Amino acid sequence: MNARKLVLGRIDLWTYKIPGLRTVCDLAGVDYKEMEEIYSLREINVDIAFSKKTSDAIVQKWKNAFNEMVADGTLMKIRKRWNKRIPDAPFPELEDKP
Predict the structure, then answer these.
(1) From residue 88, how far is each of 10, 32, 52 by CA, in Å?
(2) Among positive and negative, which fits the CA dihedral 40, 41, 42, 48?
(3) Which of 44, 45, 92, 98 is surrounded by the most beta carbons within 10 Å?
(4) Residues 56, 26: one domain?
(5) Assign residue 94 a region: left if phi > 0, alpha if psi is -120 to 50, beta otherwise?
(6) pTM, whole model, 2 decimals?
(7) What is the mean pLDDT of each run of 10 residues along the chain (98 residues)?
């Protein structure tokens, strides 16, 4: 509703996360290109937490596996399978790989 209200001028500002913006606008019948980012409230990294007792070797294996998934396109394949309505990358810092 807020996407539509913003385009209609009924509200002046709306906060939303970039990766889901296109889907929300599609559902509201609004062209997402009419939206303009004015201010970034905060930027966060997506991380995974480990127990303090987890060895550095295990943490490094996870990091390596994630980086391999990015490099070989597995991450994007998973993302596209579950988020078919969002054609843009879920993580702007990652390049869309086939």
Answers:
(1) 28, 12, 35
(2) negative
(3) 92
(4) no
(5) beta
(6) 0.44
(7) 90 82 87 83 73 95 92 85 59 47
Residues 51 and 35 in one domain: no
Taking CA atoms, 3 is separated from 11, 32, 54, in Å, by 9, 9, 44
Joined together, the tokens standing for residue 48 give 């995974």
- Token pair listed for 20: 């889901």
Helix or strand run (H / E) with residue 97: none
Residue numbers of the domain that contains 97: 45-98
Same domain, 94 and 80: yes
Shared-domain flag, residues 63 and 20: no
Counting beta carbons within 10 angstroms of the beta carbon of residue 68, is it exposed (0 to 12), middle (13 to 18) or buried (19 or more)? exposed
- Report yes or no: 94 and 70 within 8 Å, Cβ to Cβ: yes
> Which residues have a Cβ under 8 Å from the Cβ of 67 and sit 6 or more positions away?
none
